[in-house]
Q: What sequence folds into this?
């Protein structure tokens, strides 16, 4: 079996894990979900679901990863025998599927970044996005993103993932904070903040707001696909896993929250409320560039910072997704890291070609793999840890965390609250899949 890596420092692990969680969903998908779910009421519920749904499942993944020192397939087999191996296979397939379309979106982001750097974004941004989102150009941009991701993965845990994360994540935090300061100067900042930060209590009890907040909290933390199991498998020692889970969740939530401080002033300044409600993609790649063009040279600079931030977020998530696939090949097939990274990355790059030829395919995969399958994976994981592996899981959690009462509360959440909320979220995710599938295949 190929030698497995290990994190060089706790800081490196935290930054890499936060990078895996933080993605395009934090910086724009969060605003889209909030606009659909009542603004500030959604934000309040989101924080609650991060605490009571996201953190327990995140902790469960960390517990499995550190206990087994294996990637998802081998880890689940170690936890529950060969009969549980299928769930690990499911996790790897979900990571594979998500990256196959996520890297296409990363390619769109990179192309717009290059266009802003060149000053080559035309006034008809809708036609421009149509031209760059499908066809040979989209395939090339998708391949470029995958090659960058592969080059990082094959260098290993410390020299690749950790080293890049230590540089990129502080850069991401600085850029998004800079954008929040800029957004505060826009004329739409007041109405945007009001929508974002002043909840209407009646909306707290609407089904759409509740399920939307639960889904976004889960998706934002990149749970249900084995990424955190994989990253935790490289952890040395016996530090407090709840503390690590809390710090990862807090950092991810802060990025999403500050992202809202950027996006809602932009939405209200440029009058994008309807476009965001209709399509997050349309607002991100069409309406925002069109609005920034009205600022002239200043808009070009902001566009460079904005799409640089998005590309960094996309890249750090892509790294964690490819690592799920690569580590499974290393542990289960005995591949070298280089072979696993290049073969896995090449297969994903080929699987992403349909998405680079059809943005409708990207939307379908997002609903199927990026939402429904993620929730299903998290639901099954919660049930396994809460019912099948609860005693060993509790013991592993208490190694470095001497709070038996909290450990019992964690198991209780995994057995009760978490499955109920994820089952409801899964139902609505499957319902939402129907119209997308019909639009694609009709």
A:
């Amino acid at each position: 079996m190929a030698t497995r890596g290990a994190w060089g420092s706790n800081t490196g692990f935290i930054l890499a894990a936060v990078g895996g969680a933080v993605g395009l969903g934090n910086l724009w998908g969060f605003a889209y979900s909030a606009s659909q779910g009542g603004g500030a009421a959604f934000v309040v519920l989101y924080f609650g679901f991060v605490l009571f749904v996201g953190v327990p499942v995140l902790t469960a993944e960390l517990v499995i990863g550190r206990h087994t020192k294996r990637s998802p397939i081998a880890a689940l087999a170690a936890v529950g025998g060969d009969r549980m191996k299928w769930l690990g296979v499911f996790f790897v397939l979900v990571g594979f599927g998500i990256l196959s379309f996520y890297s296409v979106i990363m390619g769109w982001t990179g192309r717009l970044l290059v266009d802003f750097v060149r000053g080559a974004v035309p006034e008809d941004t809708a036609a421009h996005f149509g031209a760059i989102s499908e066809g040979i150009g989209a395939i090339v941009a998708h391949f470029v993103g995958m090659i960058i991701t592969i080059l990082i993965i094959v260098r290993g845990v410390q020299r690749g993932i950790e080293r890049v994360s230590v540089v990129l994540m502080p850069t991401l935090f600085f850029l998004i904070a800079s954008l929040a300061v800029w957004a505060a100067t826009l004329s739409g900042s007041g109405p945007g903040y009001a929508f974002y930060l002043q909840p209407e209590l009646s909306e707290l009890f609407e089904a759409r707001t509740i399920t939307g907040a639960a889904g976004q909290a889960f998706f934002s933390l990149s749970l249900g696909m084995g990424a955190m199991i994989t990253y935790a498998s490289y952890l040395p020692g016996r530090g407090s896993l709840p503390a690590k889970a809390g710090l990862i969740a807090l950092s991810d939530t802060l990025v999403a929250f500050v992202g809202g401080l950027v996006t809602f002033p932009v939405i209200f300044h440029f009058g994008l409320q309807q476009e965001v409600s209709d399509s997050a993609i349309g607002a991100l790649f069409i309406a925002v560039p069109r609005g920034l063009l009205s600022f002239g040279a200043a808009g070009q600079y902001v566009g460079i910072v904005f799409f640089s931030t998005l590309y960094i977020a996309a890249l750090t998530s892509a790294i964690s997704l490819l690592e799920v696939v690569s580590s499974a090949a290393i542990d289960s097939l005995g591949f070298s890291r280089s072979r696993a990274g290049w073969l896995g990355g090449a297969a994903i790059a080929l699987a992403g070609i349909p998405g680079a030829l059809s943005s409708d395919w990207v939307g379908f995969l997002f609903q199927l793999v990026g939402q429904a399958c993620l929730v299903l994976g998290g639901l099954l994981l919660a049930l396994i840890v809460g019912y099948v592996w609860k005693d060993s899981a509790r013991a592993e959690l208490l190694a470095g965390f001497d709070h038996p009462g909290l450990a019992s509360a964690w198991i209780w959440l995994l057995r009760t609250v978490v499955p109920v909320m994820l089952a409801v979220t899964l139902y609505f995710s499957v319902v939402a899949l129907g119209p997308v599938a019909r639009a694609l295949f009709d």
Summary: The chain has a mean pLDDT of 89. The chain has 21 helices and no strands. Residues 10-441 form a domain with the Hydantoin permease fold (CATH 1.10.4160.10). The two ends are 47 Å apart (CA to CA).
